[in-house]
Amino acid sequence: MIASMLILPLIGAVAAPLMGKKSGKLRGICLRMFTLVEMALALGLFLGVLQGKEFSLSLPGMCGLDLSFRVDGFRGLYALIAAFMWAMTAQFSKEYFNHGENHGRYACFTMITLCGVMGVFFSDDLYTTFVFFEIMSIASYPWVAHEETKGAMRAAATYLGVSIACGMVTLMGMFLVWHEIGDLSFAALRANNGNAALVLPACLTLVGYCAKAGLAPLHIWLPKAHPVAPAPASALLSGMLTKTGLFGVIAVALNLMGENQIFGHIMLGLGLFTMLLGAVLAVFSINLKRTLACSSLSQIGYITTGLASAVILGHHGSLAAAGAVGHMINHSLLKLLLFMAAGAVYMNTHTLDLSALRGYGRGKKLLHVLFLIGALGLMGVPGINGYASKTMIHEGLVEIVHEFHGVIWYSVAEWVFLFAAGLTTAYMLKLYICLFWQKNPDQKLQEKYDALNGRDMTKRSAIALILSAIPVVILGILPNQLLMPLTRISAHFLNHHEQGDVHFFAWVNLKGGLITLVIGTVVYLFFVRKVLYKREKGYLDRWPKGLDLEEIFYRPVFCRFLPWLGCGIASFFNGIPDSKLIQVYIPRVISGFLSFLDRLPESRLFTRGLPGVIVGITRVFDELVDHAMLVGREIFLVNRRELRRARNHNIFTYLASVIAEGIHKMIRFLLPNRWLPHRAPTDMRYGTYVTNAISFGLLLCALGIVAAIIYVFIRTGT
């Protein structure tokens, strides 16, 4: 079954373009047929998992190492959601691509991307995840570059550059994980859960996955890729490809670092910052799809906050973990619905500017209802799916506040969550009122929009939108009957126990949702309408033009500074052979020094004294580095509360003993004939961090090479 679901999209990737050479209609039929068959297989696989069947596959020797696949509740569930999203967007694509070019290319790479997504969700080790993750990343590049405009090519270059550079960092992190534990399987990760020696490898491994998920500050591709990509591709980019990144985050964060609170606090900071940044960008955005893209950035912050809360709470974090998975499911379905609704608007207007789109949806009852369902879901209104998962994530933060009573920063984190949720209400109100309640000041344009009433989409597109909206409503109405069971079958992969039912509609939970709705309404009335909107001009772009992280930092560093530095170093070494200093004087100095040594063969100074000094210095430096790294590990990478509980004495006493031990060893090893003990490769005191430092140097070298490649690509491609 697993092999069939991986091979079938590849067959479709060949068949659809070939059929398209005969007839565009045949290409569309082929694309829809393959995605529907894939969905049927995914449904059968998921039902088999629910019945207790085990599905696994191993391909020995593939890609240099074994590729291993396994399907449990979470992986089977997300394979089904992915197949459903591909099937719905394939149905919607028929009308969306009635005009334009490169349909065969779109169909081909859409199916290859589906293969990559399925491979990621079926993977049972980090190596298999990485292989299919890279396949997916490269295959999805043509989505962003589809229109081949200057803006599309620039956004595609950013997307590919971030994918390659961050993928290299992830690969280096995997090398370090392999070095430490000798295995990359998820079972091995769980067996080493909380190992402080794996914090650096875990952080490096997460870089590529965080970039694909859209976590700040690696989010730069997301707000630019979605507006230029076709709407069906945007739905998949936002609803599914970001979830493959979160799959990697879950695999590493909950299975490998699930008991490391410091790691959890780092994740919490990233999640809150991403959540707030995405919401602010969405409030200021004046582009329909860019607003939805920035919304995705914010919602990824919600999910990361839930995962971080689960890590901080440890074994008591099952509610937060369930909320994170629940919001993954809900966000995938919501963005499928909303981006296809945005596509229905764009294919009739050929604009995404909110000022020009004012009044488009007036009188379009079906589109009105469907968009409203998606908007209410993102806003967290009770009765629609987004409310339940947001409530669970919020309750996870509340548990942290109670667990660490008196720590003000956790209360601040909770209010950041509520304020960001309020901003979600504000920007979705902006989109909804703009499209369906405001009138366009251009009367002729408004009449043109009104003339489309009843003819704004075909029956096939309408069915795709309706089918996408149904699970959004059902999951919202029956959260304990449907959403919670889906989170329970995901508990094993989350490395947490199953969460019981939640009283979603109790006042204590409804109160949090009400607070966010009030905040959002106030922001909309007194900021969006008063500051960001003028009736005569429409929606104003008041976001500072120069405030773009990509243009301020990433492109100057990777496209100008690093190539300049590399060229300067190369030019320096290229000029060395012509230097008289190198050709004449340095050889003379070396020759004279060697002649001097040759005349003193029996000197105790050179046979014993000097080598002894050199050996002593190197040993002192060696021990100094090792113990400095050890002290740093104990200070920054170990949970101090756990350390005190385990050793039952003061942390500073322990660190002083470590330093004293290091000094003692340095004194003992000053003797030139004294040999160091054997260095175990996994012993934290002997060489691990030195090895990590060397690996990090290799990482920086690799990043320099990648930066040069990206620079050449951007120069030639834009």
Describe, in plain words, how this protein is organized in 3D.
The strands form two sheets. This protein has a two-stranded antiparallel ribbon with strand order 1-2. The protein is mostly helical. The two termini are 43 Å apart. It has a domain at 260-488 and 535-543. The chain is 76% helix and 2% strand. The longest helix is centred in the last third of the chain and has 34 residues, at 604-637.
Give a short overview.
Helix content is about 75%, strand content about 0%. The chain contains 29 helices and four strands.
Helix coverage percent: over 70%
Distance between the termini: 43 Å
Number of helices: 29
Compute the CA-based radius of gyration.
29 Å
Structural class: mainly alpha
Tell the overall outline. Answer: globular
Mean model confidence by pLDDT: 81
Task: Outline the biggest β-sheet.
Answer: 2 strands, antiparallel
Q: Name the beta content range.
A: under 5%
* Total beta-strand segments: 4
Residue ranges: pLDDT <50 for 5 or more in a row? Answer: 635-643, 671-702
- Record the strand order, biggest sheet: 1-2
